[in-house]
Amino acid sequence: MGFNCGIVGLPNVGKSTLFNALTDTAAAEAANYPFCTIEPNVGRVAVPDERLQRIFTITGSAEKIPTHLEFVDIAGLVRGASKGEGLGNQFLGHIRSVAAIIHVLRCFESSAITHVEKTVDPIRDAETVETELMLADLESLERRIEPLEKRATSGDKEAKTSLPIMCRTLETLRDGRPARTVECAPEELPVFQSLQLITAKPVLYVCNVDEGSAATGNALSRRVAEMAEASGQGCVLISAAIEAEVAELETEAEKAEYLESLGLEETGLARVIRAGYALLDLATYFTTGPKESRAWTVSHGMAAPDAAGVIHTDFKKGFIRAETIAYDDFVANNGEQGAKDAGRMRLEGKDYIVQDGDIMLFRFNV
């Protein structure tokens, strides 16, 4: 389990260039005209994690298996997409299946690259795309509410439970606010999530800047950062042009040297992953042994049996306990046996909440 995210934005903001660079592939055609992405492209990338490398080295495992992140590159949306403009809403369905939305915003001026709106204004662009996604959600709910009202009137308990939440969400969308701003009680969340609304998903704004602004940003990216902070969403600075250059380099040393020459400590991919994990409230735990050292992604607050179920459903069904070592203890004591000898290995039960960096061995019986 990693997390998957749909890359959206207006045409010609750098989505496909970014996708190609992040997935180190030329699967998405990047060209200087709208709608060059005709089908949604899916790319999986390994999540870089220095902790996994350290665990792998200490254990001496035969194989190292990182967790993965999935990107879905979706064709550029334009004003009126929810009504069929441009390539229309055929692509909106692809967005419904992802966990988060990466919204790429153009934050650089260039006479060589056309802009569908003729001028560069990332706030306007963000509002344009958000409006189209809200209109798509609104249409989806309005189609479903009349049958639900009839079922509720006839005494259907499920419909009676769902109707107030749907009405509240409809009112929010009609007010021009995304579905993620709807306040739900914990017991209402399953119903709300079942609505599968695009604007209920968290958003990571990716400011695509010119190479000279990659380290510090610019006036345009700062406006986006302020917007993201005000709405409680994520924001990352990235230069798709630099990411494309990095993807062409063969060795990690070459990549590090190139980034350092630009005043950057890490790739945009690393920043996107870190921001995405924070946005989705994810954590990583590890398993390690002679055969393999492996990273697993779970939600923060997940109990040990559910985390075990990420590996295999039988692990959850027959969960007995989890032998657990904190990452720092694992490293400080040079591995599993050293941690055990130092009394740093714990036996955790069904109520244990997995912590980021835990090294775990699940005991189960089916």
Keyword list:
366 residues; alpha/beta; 3-stranded mixed β-sheet; 14 helices; 6-stranded mixed β-sheet; single chain
Task: Characterise the protein shown here.
With 366 residues, this protein is α/β, with parallel strands linked by helices. It contains 14 helices and twelve strands. The chain has helices at residues 15-23, 50-59, 92-96, 122-153, 157-174, 189-194, 219-231, 240-248, 252-261, 268-280, 304-311, 313-317, 327-332, 336-341, and strands at 3-8, 41-46, 63-65, 68-73, 100-106, 203-208, 234-238, 282-288, 292-299, 319-325, 346-348, 359-364. Helix 7 (219-231) links the parallel strand 6 and strand 7 (234-238). It starts with a strand and ends with a strand. The model is unreliable at 26-30 and 32-38 (pLDDT under 50).
Quick rundown:
The protein has 366 residues and is an alpha/beta fold.
Write the layout of secondary structure elements.
Elements: E1 3-8, H1 15-23, E2 41-46, H2 50-59, E3 63-65, E4 68-73, H3 92-96, E5 100-106, H4 122-153, H5 157-174, H6 189-194, E6 203-208, H7 219-231, E7 234-238, H8 240-248, H9 252-261, H10 268-280, E8 282-288, E9 292-299, H11 304-311, H12 313-317, E10 319-325, H13 327-332, H14 336-341, E11 346-348, E12 359-364
Helix pairs in contact: 1-8, 4-5
